[in-house]
Amino acid sequence: MIEIATTVLTVEDVDRAGDFWRAALGYVNRRAPTDDWVILDPAAGKGAAPSIALSRTGYPQHYPPRLHLDIYADDQAAEIERLRGLGARDVAWDGYPPDADFVVMEDTEGNRFCVVDAPDWFEPGGRERRT
């Protein structure tokens, strides 16, 4: 049996990317970062969310990327503004369907993610999926 435990994002600046993702997701370092690697885990009490690792590669991002993260938001507009304040940027993309419930953004390193309007995903007072 196997399972996905960590998603690795390639970055040019581990410190800058770590600052962004820790603030964006409320994650913490698993252990002290090195110059080219850090693993970020959910903070205590955040449930079984997956880890994110940041790896300095020395080569630029490829566009369009072949992988992106979906970030679920209970208040999409507020989260988009908060993420912009942390350094995220909007991605100019003409592929939105008319009923899109997501907005494409990129982190400080150019890694793309979608902020999905998903208020039904969240339980009051916690971040557990409703069934």
Indicate the multimeric state: single chain
Largest sheet entry: 4 strands, mixed
Spatial order of the strands forming the largest sheet? 1-4-3-2
Which strand-content bin applies to the residues? 25-35%
* Structural class computed from helices and strand pairing: alpha/beta
Overall spatial form: globular
Instruction: Give the mean pLDDT.
Output: 88
Total count of helical runs of at least 4 residues? 2
CATH architecture call: Roll
Structure in words:
The protein is of the alpha/beta class. It has one domain (6-121): 2,3-Dihydroxybiphenyl 1,2-Dioxygenase, domain 1. The chain is 17% helix and 30% strand. The protein has helices at residues 14-25, 76-85, and strands at residues 6-11, 27-29, 37-42, 51-56, 69-73, 89-90, 102-106, 112-117. A four-stranded mixed sheet has the order 1-4-3-2, covered by helices on one side. The longest helix is centred in the first third of the chain and has 12 residues, at 14-25. The mean pLDDT is 88. Pfam families: Glyoxalase_6. Residues 3-118 form the VOC domain.
